Amino acid sequence: MAGLNFLATGAEVRIVERDGAAMLYDSSRAGNAVPGWLDPHWWRERGSVTPAAEGRGAASLIEADGRSFVLRHYRRGGWAARLSLDRYWWRGPARTRSFREWQLLYHLHRAGLPVPMPVAAGYKRSGRTYVADLLVQRVPEVRSLAALLRAGPVSLSTWVAIGRWLRRFHLCGVYHADLNAHNILLGADEAVWLIDFDRGGLRAPGWWSDANLVRLQRSVQKLCAALPAGRFSPADWHLLLDSYFATRLEAGAVHALPAI
Fold it and tell me: For residue range 120-156, what is the model confidence (pLDDT) as tens digits?
């Protein structure tokens, strides 16, 4: 498919086209995937499907055949949602929301960064518009920063870990378009994961990294404004920033990633 030559991926990547639709998947993770992999009703017949508590779009948590996935149907936000909830203007397969996010996750995961493993992505075209879906492997035993803050104050070591990992992402040129308290996941031993890279990408160093931090700070402040006092303080934020600016990549660690 000439329109998909933009995909700088390995031999395990497969593309299936049919009737104005296409699906991209990792055969090492999905075997011979079928279009049903991007349909929550298909999964419901084989296991359990429940709505995700957080995140943008219409996300479903899937437990089926011994697998754990998150399936997200792309939805518009803001004023654009008044025109259409889930349809986007067609500008070619390389520019579909699902294929772009899948490819970014593919590169980040292969580089060793803590992001969900991409499994499959697809679109269905109708005239000048399309709808899109993305399937990723679920990160086990984690809670979002938002969920932790609702439960109580977050430990100082957690703020340090978040700052350290955000710095590593930024040093690698990774831009997250919606860095907020819902898209940071935390696990055992201060493990930090970033999710939801819709509209994200790889960029040269610039002021965008500072804007990322400001967006996160506003997100946490807005969340905590409706919570009991003491969930988030200026000292917490300064601790995150101190960790962020003190972090350097160790020898042999992931360095700036090439443009996709």
Answer: 999 999 999 999 999 999 999 999 999 999 999 999 9
Catalytic residue among 26, 178, 196, 198: 178
Beta-carbon neighbour count of residue 112 at 10 Å?
Answer: 11
pTM over the 0.70 mark: yes
> 141: which DSSP letter?
S
Which tokens sit at 236?
A: 């917490």
Question: pLDDT class for 203, splitting at 50, 70, 90?
Answer: very high
> Which residues lie below 8 Å from residue 206, measured CB to CB, with a gap of 6+?
none
**CA–CA distance, 23 with 25 (Å, rounded to integer):** 7
Q: If you search the block for the tokens 């955000």, which residue do you land on? A: 166
- Give the pLDDT mean for 6-21: 80
Phi, psi values for residue 107, rounded to 5°: -70, -40
Other Cβ atoms closer than 10 A to 97: 19
Do the strands 118-126 and 129-137 form a parallel or antiparallel pair, or are they unpaired?
antiparallel
**Is residue 178 flagged as an active site residue?**
yes
